[in-house]
Amino acid sequence: MSVKLLIILASALYVVPIVLWIILRQLRKKSGVQEETITSWMNRQPGIKKENPKLNRFYQRSYVRSAQIPIFRGQVRRIRQRLAVISPYDELTIRKETMKITYSVLLIVVGLILALALFGRSVSVVLLGMIGCLVLNGMLIDLFVHRVENRLLKDFRDFLEDNRHQFQATRMADEAIYEAAQLSGHDMKLHGERMHGVLTAKDPDRSLAAYYEVAPNRYLKVFTGIARMIMEYGDKTTAKGSLYLNAISKFVQDINFDLLRRNRLSYQLNSLTVIALAPILLSFPLQRWAETYFPVMGEFYEGRIGLAAKLLLYAVAIAAYVLIRKLAETEESRYTPKSGGIRWEKKLYEYRPIRFVVDRFVPQKHTKAHYSLSRLIKESNSPLMIEWLTVRRLLLSLCAVLFVSGMFVSAHISQVERIWNSPTYLKGGLMLGRIDDAERREAEERTSFDRRIMQEIDAGKSGWEAEVRSLVRESAASALSDVQQNEMATRIVEKLSQADSEYLKWWEVLTAVAAGIGVYFVPLGIMQFQRRIRGMEMQNEVDQFRMLISILSQFDRMSVQNILEWMERFGIIFKPALQRCLLDYDSGSAAALRQLKTEAPFPSFVRMIERLENALERISIQEAFDDLEMEQEYYREQKKETMDRLIESKANWGRDIGFAPVMFMLGAYIIVPFLYVSFMQMKDLITQLGQI
């Protein structure tokens, strides 16, 4: 009955978008003037693709309605924030794109839940499918948004090629950018027109600073800044020709490297997320197959050991999925500082009782633990404060304690249910192979007989064992021998004793507490893993700094402070250290650079800062980095080698992590159950031989 109810609920959820569309369609009569205004405004915009006006109105009204529904409000806000970083959409366009992704994800997720409800025919399958759909929701959002970001990078590369040709014809950077924008796709056209507006504004520096705040990636930021410098100081002829054209060539080359890295990393790791989660779905048919051909294994799967193995399998699979997702992160929107919105951790921390409890767990200031935790938060690029992180850790720990305790209670209830209702097979024989219908009917008759006797027994009274034997003699057929009657009575007594012992034990409570303590440190482990993965990207960012400095060093009016400002604007991993260096630069440039080397002690980065130290007083910027042009071929090969090592390292990590759930499933659902069955059968066989 419960499965049918879940099917009905899943079907109802599946038609929610259709019903919503019908309702919104009926509401058009109440605001026809406003809808006509929206449609006419969209049709007047040259950059917006002409679509069905009814569909556009549906997206706009869906966005307004979904912002009022608590379930969808966070989903829509999360998608909007990521799209707003990637593309400079106007308000109506970003609402439409947000709802497109929202409805696509909703239909896929609800369709999957419906399929699990129809074919799984199990409450546990449907509930687990809902958990899987939550994971799938994040995957689909990343897929759609990641695709937009890659498309923008490719369009920007084509835009630079067109810009090269236009600049060679006009020798004017602003005109070349405008003409190249007209030849680009919709997203890149918006960015190109925004760049042209920056270069031709009355206050270009102010417009450039405003564009830096909304530019979706660092390539667009730096290219716009260089174009602004070309407009102000003019182009310069270097040993390799035009400075502007040479910068475009370096940008194209670096974007090609970045796209190649993304594609190779996606090829290596994308399938591993499916492999990591596959054991969760495969565990159900594997368990059903084992119970069909090896019936005794059902005792293992329904017992405490089987339940613990199942929970560990789910935990390992989800942990592997999260870690692989961290490995596969390439889009810059994951590394940019996260802001906007009110975090739920902050809301909880504002309550006085919760703050009192949390403050007891927060390390005291000016202690080593406080400094280490602060550094970990910064290096993992987490938006949390220490207090908010502690709120999250405590809440996860409490949920883990309640979940494990609930699973133990559920296991006891399931065990009692199995004792009362599961088919009772005789202990003789090895119980291998499929059970025929006659043997199953006999086992069900034994269970029915035992249940009838057990319902009349009160195990709390003294002498209930003798009462069981008396009822068995009265109810059993006269053809049964005394030995058979004694075996039946002994079996019923064992069942009642087992059912009476099914309660929450003290060691199970301790296990739940230990699980909570372990989960309390899980967020720190994930942050340390993310910090290590970011460490792998450091050399790649240093190589991009070299490309940037090789362009900037050609300008005559370039200083060390300007170089640091451009590096901070272009950087991701080293950005916090560069920001602190710029804040301290006016109070002492040499001391600020020394502190920068201390905060970011990566060897390649330190050598680059040492060159900037030389350029403070001794030599010029161009002389400090003159070998960048001379050794350009070497650095290109070094960058290729670094990229290959980075991808290979992440691929090895991903394979080890991705196949860990598969190996655990083979052990937990095949090897351990078979060993359990073998030992149990061996024990019964030895008992029978002893009786003989």
From TrEMBL:
Keywords: Membrane, Transmembrane, Transmembrane helix. The keyword Calcium does not apply. The keyword Hydrolase does not apply. The chain crosses the membrane at residues 6-24, 101-119, 125-145, 267-285, 305-324, 394-413, 506-526, 657-679. This is Type II secretion system protein GspF domain-containing protein. It comes from Saccharibacillus endophyticus.
